[in-house]
Amino acid sequence: PVDRPDPEDVDVIRRSSEADVLELIRAGPCLEEDDVQQPQVLVNAVKEPVPEDLASKRGAVLVHVYNLNEDLSEANKTLNFSSDIVAIGGVFHVGMEVFGGEWSYGVCGVTCIPPRSEEAHVYQCTVYMGRTDADEEALATMLFGLAQEWTGEKYDLIGRNCCSFAAELGRRLGVGELPCWVDRFARILQTGRDAGIAAIEGAKCLPGIIEREVVRFKTEFPTHAQRHAQLAADFGSTLFRAGEQAVVDMQPHVEVAAKRVAAGAEALVLTAQPHVHEAARQVHLGASEAARRAQDGVVELVAGWQWTGDQDAPEPLSADLTRS
């Protein structure tokens, strides 16, 4: 359970006037004697460093992110394990700074403190959200109206907290949504709680729903079954007829294709036949020429032997010459 503060400290902004809120915006909240303002660590929505001078421009909107306590600092590093928008996100407290004041929401309602001076939590970084077109007067009207709606008694740790307030204020200032990693963990918890409540409520209604559906099933099934069976039979008959027609329609095309294949094969044979004959003739000529040259060589070799009866008979041809 959340500890409830002194009633005098609750909804102070709500009990003031719009003029008081405007004066606070213009003057800015003052640091008390024991307050500590942490050095600013300025980043963008994906936690990349950005120039520090962006924070000093008029109309700059900044979200100061705090770990809930020292013990949760390490847990948040685990949950918020990457520097991009797909990180799960941690358990954070946030305040939104505009025109020099850090505005947040909790059990005391809407409050304003000097930037980065929250003592109950541990400062982590500051996200630059952009610049608003609203001036001090418009902001005073905006915050005074929010203070009437976001009262301390309506605070809820999961569903209506500092993150949801900062998201609403950011939308009204025109700087868009909070980075996903800032409030994702709270949104996951809220979604789970909503689902649990819906499941409980659904379970209460379940017996009646089942009973009604059983009655409807008993009444409607015979009629619906007969109708769907007839539709299935009609569809099957239509499909069979379509198949038969497809066979009839395709037959002429199949015959034409067969004729074209046969004609193509015949033309191929006729085209190739002269080339085959010519190749055979060239082979024959080549063989004849080779035989003639071999015969001339043998005759020339024999003619070179000038042998007479007075000479010794020549030696028989060697085996090499015989093979030649």
Describe this structure as you would to a colleague.
There is one protein chain. With about 325 residues, the chain is an alpha+beta fold. The chain contains 7 helices and 6 strands. It has a 6-stranded mixed sheet with strand order 1-6-2-3-4-5. Strand 4 and strand 5 form a beta hairpin. About 5% of the residues have low confidence.
Descriptive labels:
alpha+beta, 324 residues, six-stranded mixed sheet
Outline of the structure:
With 324 residues, the chain is an alpha+beta fold.
Oligomer: single chain
Strand content: 5-15%
Question: What structural class do you assign from the helix and strand content?
Answer: alpha+beta
- Coarse shape: elongated
The radius of gyration over CA amounts to 49 Å
Largest sheet: 6 strands, mixed
SSE series: HHEEHEEEEHHHH
Number of separate strands: 6
| Secondary structure: helix percent | 55-70%
> How is the largest sheet built, in terms of strand order?
1-6-2-3-4-5
Instruction: Report, as a whole number of angstroms, the end-to-end distance.
Output: 117 Å
Q: How many DSSP helices?
A: 7
Q: What is this structure's SSE topology?
A:
Elements: H1 12-15, H2 18-27, E1 42-43, E2 60-67, H3 70-79, E3 92-98, E4 101-106, E5 109-113, E6 122-131, H4 136-149, H5 162-173, H6 180-303, H7 319-323
Parallel strand pairs: 1-6
Antiparallel strand pairs: 2-3, 2-6, 3-4, 4-5
Helix pairs in contact: 2-4
